[in-house]
Specification:
Chain lengths: 250, 406
């Protein structure tokens, strides 16, 4: 199996006035292709900081980050932008969809920045991504005409559309109720089964159990890593939930 | 990213925020429109005045008796009689910078034709008068030297007089009218000249030989004025000096005595009026400039607000692979679209405004290319710079900082 992520002694300091916050204090982590990793930990332990660096949205203060064999730390801004565009898909807790823009157009957006995608293939690719998240019937809805779960699925479709090697999600279910959270997890498990590598952050131990591996953060360090033994299957759990709840969130 | 993508993204972003886009454009529209309208009105009235004055002949030189009062005491009736026909002869013989010279004697009185009558001024002049004052004969002819010598009762009518006595467009040549109860033969009709720059009717006049008017109508031995034309517009200052010298000599004025006449030239008048209208244009331009400035500040404001609001959008665009230059190009494209669209609408709006103002002021408003270009460039620069500069700032942030921006 290919190593998708390899980080060595990664550090991140924030300077706020006189104070220096050591958000990450030396992280070593390896993630191989096809893995489904949940990052756990208390608030302020550095999970988001870690994920933002993995997503190339932020730069580490020190340490190496190899993404798909390339050392990101030594790359130029534009090359990193291309990396974000073609190798990474980021899902935010707050969805971050463009307002007054249809679901389809939101999903299309990353394709505009991808020179490899021709204009006439754009629409089709976006529709395929929306199909993958089961939202073809909401294609022309604006974000404010969609439920939170649907918005998150649009965001996931957007992260998928350039066929990235890695999907990163920072508390993707943080704003959603239990059932919708499970639906998102079902989607992730589907994608993972098809070979997509996924790393996500969550607070809830329940949600972490859908992953194949858990990484616990504490005070900017990895405190414990574990393989999930009693892995949950989101599809099965959803089938056991009462039907009326399904309608409520459909 | 290619340019069709770029403009597609920019246009989508603008359509998403129609109101904001419109408000930004409004600043540009008002700025451009006001500059264009103001300058057009200024330019229009300037050209109108110029046109009217030059239609009276730019190389015309006038000599009037000096009516100046000194210390509140009028210099008396004698000063109004200062000019004589001999002055005309002296000018004709001696002045080298002066071409045609004509006396002018004015008499006013009632004019009668059958049951119609009117009141007007009869100008006693020589034949040269017509060329000096740029008057043209529409039909008939000008009186000749014989008729002048014999004080013939012949006259040429202005269009207003024709209209009052015979009706509009009539040709009364060969008919006889009564001026101050004397019968006069109409030998010609003048082409109409319209209003003068000062709003007086230039067609309300009758021309007759100066001898006839001096003796038969006014019964005086002096003349009211002299009209001459300098050889060219450039020579008119020299002509003024020359005329003054000759007249001082013929009037036998001592070194210390003031002139008992005044010499004026049309080109001087033109200069004065041009400088006044120039000042007016600059004033209007300054007012317009202020509104352009206010418009510019409005553009800046909206752009700043929108970029702050859109820093998060910029962060998102970067997080999905937008490079700094893609973002900046997008904002630049948006600004250019807004500026050009607003600029074009401003030009159209300004032009209509100028037309409207022009028709209200019964003068033409002239839109000059320079003012269009100026207004356009100023708004374009402001719009583009203030659209692009904050976007550049945002695009230089880490994506995560832009995403978290509040
Ligand atoms: N932009 C920043 N400037 C300064 N300090 C920051 C910044 N971002 C994060 N920190 C600090 O870094 C530490 C780690 O923050 P981080 O957001 O990674 O925590 P987290 O594990 O994601 O917490 P949570 O579960 O609440 O989201 C915290 O102490 C936080 O205060
Ligand atoms: Mg966090």
């Amino acid at each position: 199996m290919n190593t998708i992520i390899e980080i060595r002694n990664l550090r991140k300091d924030y300077h706020v006035g006189e104070v220096t916050v050591h958000a990450l204090r030396g992280i070593d982590l390896k993630i191989t292709e096809g893995e489904f990793v949940a990052i756990m930990g208390a608030s302020g332990s550095g999970k988001s900081t870690m994920l933002n660096i993995l997503g190339c949205l932020d730069k580490p203060t020190a340490g190496d980050y190899l993404l798909d064999g390339i050392n990101v730390s030594s790359m130029e801004k534009d090359a990193i932008a291309r990396l974000r565009n073609q190798k990474l898909g980021f899902v935010f807790q707050a969805y971050n969809l463009l307002a007054r823009t249809t679901a389809l157009e939101n999903v299309e957006l990353p394709l505009f920045y991808n020179p490899k995608v021709r204009a006439r293939d754009r629409r089709e690719a976006a529709i395929r991504a929306l199909e993958a998240v089961g939202l073809t019937d909401r294609m022309h809805h604006m974000p404010n005409q969609l439920s939170g779960g649907q918005q998150q699925r649009v965001a996931i479709a957007r992260s998928l559309v350039n066929d990235p090697v890695l999907i990163l999600a920072d508390e993707p279910t943080g704003n959603l109720d239990t059932r919708t959270s499970f639906e998102i997890m079902e989607l992730f498990q589907n994608l993972n089964e098809k070979g997509r590598t996924i790393v996500y952050v969550t607070h809830e131990p329940d949600i972490a159990k859908f992953a194949t591996r858990n990484v616990m953060f504490r005070d900017g360090k990895i405190y414990r890593e574990s393989i999930v033994t009693e892995r949950l299957n989101a599809k099965e759990i959803l089938e056991t939930l009462p039907v009326e709840v399904i309608e409520e969130f459909d | 990213m290619n340019y069709s993508n770029l403009f597609r993204i920019a246009i989508r972003a603008l359509i998403r925020n129609k109101l904001r886009a419109f408000l930004t454009m409004l600043g540009i529209i008002i700025g451009v429109a006001s500059v264009i309208a103001m300058l057009a009105i200024g330019e229009g009235s300037k050209q109108k005045m110029r046109g009217q004055i030059s239609s009276m002949g730019t190389n015309m030189v006038m000599v009037m008796p000096n009516f100046q009062r000194r210390g509140g005491v009028s210099l008396g009736a004698s000063s109004s009689m200062a000019l004589k026909y001999t002055d005309v002869i002296a000018l004709r013989n001696e002045a080298v910078d002066v071409g045609a010279v004509s006396p002018e004697i004015r008499a006013s009185g009632q004019i009668i034709y059958s049951n119609k009558n009117t009141q007007t001024t009869i100008y006693g002049v020589s034949e040269e008068y017509l060329s000096i004052r740029k008057l043209e004969v529409l039909s008939g002819r000008v009186f000749n030297a014989n008729e002048t010598r014999s004080m013939a009762k012949v006259c040429i009518l202005g269009q207003t007089v024709v209209e009052n006595l015979f009706g509009k467009g009539a040709d009364p040549v060969g008919l006889s009218i009564r001026i101050k109860n004397l019968p006069f033969l109409v030998i010609g009709v003048l082409k109409d000249k319209g209003e003068s720059g000062m709003g007086q009717d230039q067609d309300d006049l009758i021309l007759a030989p100066y001898t006839t008017v001096q003796r038969r109508l006014a019964a005086i031995d002096y003349i009211n004025g002299i009209y001459a034309s300098a050889l060219s517009e450039e020579k008119s200052p020299a002509a003024i000096v020359e005329v003054e010298e000759i007249l001082r000599r013929t009037h036998k004025l001592k070194e210390s005595t003031e002139n008992d006449f005044r010499v004026m030239s049309q080109s001087e008048l033109l200069k004065t009026i041009t400088s006044i209208t120039d000042i007016m244009t600059y004033l209007l331009g300054a007012i317009a400039g202020i509104s352009l400035l206010v418009g510019g500040i409005g553009i800046m404001n909206i752009m700043f607000v929108s970029v702050t609001e859109r820093t998060r959008e910029i962060g998102l665009r970067m997080s999905i692979g937008g490079r700094g230059k893609d973002i900046m190009k997008q904002f630049l494209a948006e600004s250019i679209i807004l500026s050009i669209l607003g600029g074009v609408m401003g030009v159209v709006f300004g032009y209509l405004l100028a037309r409207l103002a022009g028709s209200l002021m019964s003068s033409q408003a002239i839109v000059k290319t320079q003012s269009v270009v100026l207004a356009f460039i100023v708004c374009f620069v402001i719009g583009v710079f203030f659209g692009w500069y904050p976007a550049r700032k945002a695009a230089n942030l880490n994506p995560i900082d832009a995403l978290r921006y509040e």
